[in-house]
Amino acid sequence: MTKSFVLKKFKVDKLRLNADKNQLIEDGKKCAKETPIDEITQYHPVKRDAVEMIKTQEATLIPELLSLRHQRMMENAFTFLRGTAGIMEYDILHGSKESHIPVMICGDAHLNNFGFFASPERQLLFGLNDFDETRVGSWENDLKRLMVSAKLISEINGYDAEDTRKILEKTAKSYEDGIEYANNLNLLDRHYLSYNIKDLLEIAKDDEQMVKVLNKIAKKAPHQNSDKVVKKFTEEKDGKVQFKENPPRARRMSQKSYDKILEAFEQYLKNLSPDMQVFLSNFKVTDIIRYSVGVGSFGTRCYLVLLKGKDDTNLVLQIKEALPSKYDLLKLTVEEAEKQSFEEGKRVITGQKILQTFFDPFLGYTKTKERNYYVRQFRDMKDSIDSTKLDKESFAAYARLCSFILAVAHYQSPTAPMIYGYLKESKKFSKKMADWAETYSKQVHEDYDAFAKYLRGEE
């Protein structure tokens, strides 16, 4: 295993290795000897200023949204983690060793970035559902972020230290199980693999609370569609249906900005597959508004586009700014990041298509002169499980499920048999990963406290 696997840019050809499965497994075993699990699960605190790092990141965001962004981030240590992916990337890069086994990763695989979404056949599926930070990278970085989120949410939920430790170790073990499961599937079975709501109900049939949560989602999610968005988010004004303004979160734009986004939308249509181009020729854009979402993404440039079909069908799409991944911002010069910036939307949707298997048919990318975007349906059968409202047993099951699904998603990369080989040579893997999560969660708390002090003006 050589350092040629260290990846600085988004290149999917890094995943196309000229080696068969058995050779890749052997390469993974060699990697485990060169950089053992003991080394990649050690965290050495990095000398850096978390407050300054956050301020630097926020310099590119919309200024009037920063106060709301801070409110969302500072609700608790977990929401702070959600809003500071760049800090954790920096710490992993400088405070830990990496396996350098390259797969397509989510880049931000905390527990709230799993959820429900619709397949093109209108099945309600479950899996990773946020890909702003997706890239080719070391597999364990995703698992570390998932496990730190499990640790922080366990604290919020009031679980004691012993129970939390068990949850963390079983979460790591579930990733191992997922890798072994995926390794035993043939290529086609793995490629078509998905988890729908019926699968989850069967898995959770003995968990009364989880069954209750899943049944509620199964009933609610199909009604999350463009018609509901139009009913909630629009009003009729001067004979025209348009989005309601709710500053600063939802704000109308100048005509110049409106025309720029409309032009980007036309470019998006050209980038779509011919069948989707034909389908969308049935619609015309009737309104656009800037509308901010999320925690980590709050403050970026996001827009809702209202389309009306020839038969009055409603369709609402989201145009979301695609910034360079936090990893690339840490590794590249400003000039390199700028050159790469117009590929960011394509990066996001490529990662989603690899990791999610079944994906939104409206998924696409576009750009303006200054910025890059990706496009998707807005709230189409999307829902999630609020892990802060689960009892201990249900939360433990949920964390294990997400970890298992993460492993299977990683195994969509041709290089993934190397993970299997690595884990076969890694003793006490679950214990070591739990150690890392417990150690790094203390760092998150320190950064949270430092930023809270800054916001109070006590710096």
UniProtKB/TrEMBL annotation:
Highest taxon above the source species: Bacteria
Matches recorded under InterPro entries: DUF2252 (IPR018721)
Pfam families attached to this UniProt entry: DUF2252 (PF10009)
Protein name: DUF2252 domain-containing protein
Record organism: Lactobacillus intestinalis DSM 6629
